[in-house]
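Before a computer can learn anything about folding, someone has to put a protein's shape into writing. The outcome of that step, for a single protein, is printed below:
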Amino acid sequence: MKSLSLLLKTDNDVSGLLLRLVLGVIFFAHGAQLTLGWFGGYGFSGTMGFFTETLHIPAPLAFLAIVAQFAGGIGLMFGFLTRLAALGIGANMLVAVTMVHAQYGFFMNWSGSQKGEGFEYHLLAIAVATALVVRGGGKWALDTAIDHSLRADKMARLATA
């Protein structure tokens, strides 16, 4: 119970709210491309094929990458299991940098002159995710309501014991 409380505990800070909403919306949209084919994406089967056949990512890890972005984005938007969602997204971006984007250098391909995208965006996502893992989801996170409910339930059990 104590470890669950550590996972859910957060302050009522607006900065946590802003960080999780921005990262959540971005990764929900990107995850929806990968999972549902929305916003010009290839959908789940197309993404799995690209990850496993082109990037040679093992299927279970490719699946986890897709889920981390889609479900993690939703979790962050609602502040549900914020630390876990942010950890999944941060780990996903770290793997993306090391496996794909590091070879193209630091900068994104704004001018279209490189073969691929650099990793500056990924570093920002990792930094935001790290802040959320450390601080929690901030104001209006479902984590707070769940934590308070668990504490109230524990107090009620102690009172009746």
Observations:
- Residues 14-36 form the longest helix (23 residues).
